[in-house]
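WARN no homologs supplied; continuing
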Amino acid sequence: MSGLVLGAAPAQAGKAPLNVVALGDSYGSGTGAGDYLDGTGVANGCWRSSNSYSETLVARLRDRGRQVTFTNVTCSGASTAALSQSFKGEPPQLDALSRNTNVVFLSIGTSDIDFAGYGLQCIAGDCSGQVTQDQLAKLQGMGQNVAALLGEIKARSPRAKIVMSGYGSQLTAGENAPGVPLDALCGPEFFSSQERIEGNQVASGIDATLRQTARRAHATYASPYLRNSVDLHPTFAGRSLCQSAEPHYRGFDALAPGQEGAEAVLHLNTAGQTALADLIQRRLCW
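OK structure emitted
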């Protein structure tokens, strides 16, 4: 789709406006990245951040002189099914699509398997063993749901380039980084060594499933993982929680007064959303 490639700003000014739509869940909306739009940063809200990767990419396009019509209907907690129905008092996200849509940014899948609930189980109890196996067993169904959603998006916007984003590894599978200040979530009372290992098996399984689904649908896939869905991209390597003093994910800091609350825990922060935008920009040659 050559119309997506950016050249010098004067060359962009004469092009037809690019019609971009952002669909999806909390990782797409930017829950945890601050600076929330249109009153969405409230309890049980959609938490759409001006720092989300889609908002960041559109701002970069406009800064380079490209005209962009942008519709962002992402919403925290959305599943594949929620995109075709009213959710949190808002119209179905898929209604934002049209035959004139050029680019669709999509972050979706983990709400289908209640990945947030799995994370809570890890924090509050024990998510290793059978709990993890049950979570892994849901991945095939998640992939089927996402494949059906991609088909619906193509039917509504047949000329659009679909760009799916991955979720990455929220918590290091190894030991805490030594000698640096870490979030309280990194304490052993919340995640055991085995839970960290198995939690990362689920995270990499999600990535592998989404990557394969995107490939089969001829959609672009941009992820914090490399193609093997095991190793992290250099932009994200060393940036999982408890792995660095400057992680790309939120921890219990999101529970502090004036912060988003539990909805933002284990979500990308501003730096993480920026890093994801960088990955997508390179994939699209923007």
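The longest strand covers residues 18-24.
OK
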